[in-house]
Amino acid sequence: MTDLELIFAMLGEAATKELAMSRNAQGFPANAAAAKARGKIAGDARQELEQESGKPVISQENSHQLK
User: Fold this and answer.
1) In the predicted model, is pLDDT for residue 46 greater than 90?
2) Domain limits, the chain
3) What angle is formed at CA 53 by the lines to CA 51 and CA 55, rounded to 5 degrees?
4) Minimal CB count within 10 Å: which of 12, 25, 52, 60?
5) What is the C-alpha separation between 4 and 56, in angstroms, rounded?
6) How crowded is residue 11: how many other Cβ atoms within 10 Å of its Cβ?
7) What is the DSSP letter of 62?
8) Does pLDDT of 67 surpass 50?
9) What distances in angstroms separate CA 11 from CA 6, 17, 27, 65, one per listed residue?
10) CB 2 within 8 A of CB 49
11) Secondary structure of residue 61 in the 3-state scheme
12) pLDDT tens-place string over residues 2-37
């Protein structure tokens, strides 16, 4: 996993937590809605960076190679 992949994953996780807390999400449906919203936030940010840089964020690199 590259640094950028990790950063966007962390952005998604932090956004989920923030949205769930600010919405006082209780139960699965409310938390699922917060997770879906965070996916859009992180996804939009990733696409904007890819568009501006002209390079993909997602790589074939894997930090957990099985032997």
Assistant:
1) yes
2) 3-53
3) 85
4) 60
5) 10
6) 16
7) -
8) no
9) 9, 10, 22, 24
10) no
11) coil
12) 899 999 999 989 988 898 899 899 999 998 988 888
